Prior knowledge:
Blueprint: H1 2-18, E1 27-36, E2 46-49, E3 55-57, E4 63-70, E5 72-79, E6 86-92, E7 97-99, E8 102-104, E9 114-115, E10 123-124, E11 132-135, H2 137-141, E12 158-161, E13 170-173, E14 190-194, E15 197-198, E16 219-226, H3 230-233, E17 240-246, E18 254-264, E19 268-280, E20 285-296, E21 307-320, E22 323-336, E23 342-345, E24 351-352, E25 369-373, E26 378-382, E27 387-403, E28 406-430, H4 435-440, E29 448-453, E30 460-466, E31 477-482, H5 485-488, E32 490-515, E33 518-544, E34 553-558, E35 563-565, E36 576-577, E37 580-598, E38 603-626, E39 648-672, E40 677-688, H6 692-696, H7 701-705, E41 712-725, E42 728-744, E43 748-749, E44 755-756, E45 761-777, E46 782-797, E47 799-802, E48 812-815, E49 819-820, E50 827-837, E51 840-849, E52 852-853, E53 861-862, E54 865-875, E55 880-887, E56 895-899, H8 912-917, E57 923-927, E58 932-940
Amino acid sequence: MKTLYTSCSLLTLLIALAVPVASAQSTGTITGTVTDARGNALPGAQVIVAGTSLGTVTGIDGRYALDGVPAGEHTVEVRFVGYQTGEATVSVEAGGRIRLDFALEEEVLRFDELIVTGTFDRRSAQEASVAITTLTPQVLEQTVPVSSADVLKNVPGVFVNSALGEIRNIVYSRGVSANTVDADRGYYYVSMQEDGLPVTTLTGGNYGPDYYLRHDLTVTRVEAVRGGSASITSANAPGGVFNYLSRTGAGTFGGAVSTRNGLQGGDNPFVRFDATLGGPLSEKVTFNVGGFYRYDEGARDAGYPMNQGGQLKGNLTYGLENGFLRFYAKYLHDTNGWFEFIPAVNFSDPTFAQGFDAASSVLFEPMAVPVYSTRRNETLTLDPSKLVNSREQMIQFQLVQFLDGWEIDNNARFSHKGRTWQSSGVIFMSHPADPLVYLIGGMAVDFGTYRFTDPDTGTLMAEVVRAPGSPFDPSTYTVTTNNLPNGGRFLNGLALDFRASVNEVMDQFQVAREVGPMRFVAGGFFAYADLVQTNSFGSLVTNTFVPRPQALTVTYTALDGTTYQVTEPHGFWNTTLSETRNDASQLTLAGFFNHSWELSDRFNLDYGFRLERVRNEGTNSIASLVRPPVGTAGGRDGSPLTLYDNATVTFEDFSYDATVTTFSFSGGLNYELTNRLAIYGRFSRGNKAPDLILYNDIDTQFEAETLEPITQKITQVEGGLKYRSPRMTLIATPFYSFLDDFAISTPFQNEDGTFYTPPTLFNAIETYGVEVEFDADLSHGFGLRAVTTLQNSTATRWKLNVANNPGPADDQVLDFSGGKAENAADVMFTLTPRFQRGRFSSFATIRYMGARPANVPRAFDLPAFTTVDLGVDVDVTPRVHLGASVSNLFDTAGIMSWTPPGLLIGRQTFTPEQVAANPDATFGVVPVQPRSFFVSLRYDF
């Protein structure tokens, strides 16, 4: 039956193509203008004749013309984002010409807005069988976002972890969380988009969209689709699509400038300026331009700015007779940091270790260290306080054209992205007698005395005597002096140096044809990205165990009495960069088809499929650091007594070429029971091809030869009840989600140094729940917005390989099936009550994150917490607005991320037994941002 129905649909399309256009003798013309309630022209408004394939868009002056309208009575509909739909009935005479003008009222609530994300046509949320949330300017203004991803906390079903700062966030929906718990691949299943195209198609391995996506005044709204139709409307992102849409020019000049200033986490300054301006340049051309600049020392004081820079964006729209041509451009130059794990104790109720609090920074102090690049044969300067500098130059072209019942939409983008990363990372705690410090520092086989000294005062902070024996045996390390603060421990880390350059081109083309009550869409997506990056984990740095830690210098006295300088004067154990290089390209080709059918005035069906092919090829040039025995080499400075510059680097290349082909399907039904109440249902089966990190991590010939990219399958079933009235919107969406074939396969080592791969384990996560979104204007100026997620997420299949001694003989498979999925709270909600009276308005945002397991083995639970934000705004004049806000009013230290004690314990395999064996261990946590205060001033013109 299904095959027959599909065949009939395609036959109908073919017949329609053969039908000649109706003769002019039996048709007439409808013309007019579309304006807002104040009479301002609305260019780009969609005008359609209901029940026909006729449609157009308004020009720069708001005018439109519909030719070839069959004689008879017709209903004409006008839709424009942010305005109520206009509708009028007219009678057309053969050869006649009728004028029909529309003045649209602004939409108070966003449920009737025309949506463009997650569907293959422009329709209102009331008519769409997709789980979509539109964040309007009103909602965005009631948010003081830490990052672009932070605004998505206003979307039900979506988990957002923005505790690290503006970059390296985590976003997922409906429990589809495997592979997103680490900040280097926080967007594994979702697509972050700007104006209908992905910010980048490359994600994973410390490369992703939030390095290049910023929220500012140029953003007019955000459309968020979770799951469902995302599997067929976006590239390799079945978990959701989050589209940040830019303001475009209108028929009159207008814009805004604003400034926001504040103090974060105590007294760390924040200064930001935003601007946007748009209007007509001629009868057919409009523009919009804007951007931001900010200086931000961060909510945790590292001693240097955490965010500094900005972007400039603009677009130009040329009105065609029946469509438009739009040009976008963006220049971004921004420097950002992120917060590392703060030491904590007490697994049952995590609290900060002695001397630390929620505003503590554990990042390295500024230091300019000369380091040597073997690849480039030159000396560079590595300064961990430079953080991550991201740059992008982008141009985009969009053409929308209506031609005799056909609609053509082509959206193309060209971009060059760059990233220079110098920071501290991989922060871990240790005791001076911990063998791990000496192993990472390259001194594992050198017996004698190690002295750790304050470089500023010359004070001996710790002394350790290393006796002959296994380098892994803690009993061979004896601490003879310990003047270190906070329990006599180190706060260690690595100095990172990553660099990336990416050229990317993408294009999405679709053509649509309406045939009576049916609409057919076919199209394709193309993306090609070329990546060149080098990654170096630089050097070990040993610091004091205090906030804003101080690096220590290290000397080593051998058993023969010779003293060597282990670190250079700033505390670097090694000044030779071990730069692994990735030369990679990714080609994505996709074709899609969609058929929607208005079965009646209130009942519509849509279904579609996507065939996608992703090819990754490249070469990894793996760097290996070789340290000669102590005293046998003079290094670059010629002195055998300075060990930090003695290492050399060798390189070995491994090439790969892999292609993954996927087929995804989604179909839904929407029924409007009344003008205010609708229900819908949708079934989707999507696929997720492996990300960039799978290929960039290949570092042996064995891995290159045995590479088998495996596709994950995501099945989702959802229903929805949607109610709207002039003052209220309510959407309830029960859902079921099943993530299958999540593969875990890690190469292990044999006794002879060769590698083998244990049997691949395929895991699965099942989630069911309900998403609720409520927005209402209550009486006497009060309003309320609420988004709630109730869910149960279970790792129905969760097994992990564990290697013990070298070789497969004593390998184990740990089975944690049936445990709750990590980072999936049973309850999440955001309540935003608001009040407006005259020139005064205010809001409060109350966010609740329920308790959730730290990992699938449930070593311990991350406690539930609540944060409260407050804001007020006063219209000093109709154009001048003064505001004040406080985020995290009660300075809640809600834990969002964590890491086990030490460095070698895996988060996935950390068990309750290990917690019980060492309940007083120090581990790492990242809490939400501490309390901050802001004042703002905006001028509208």
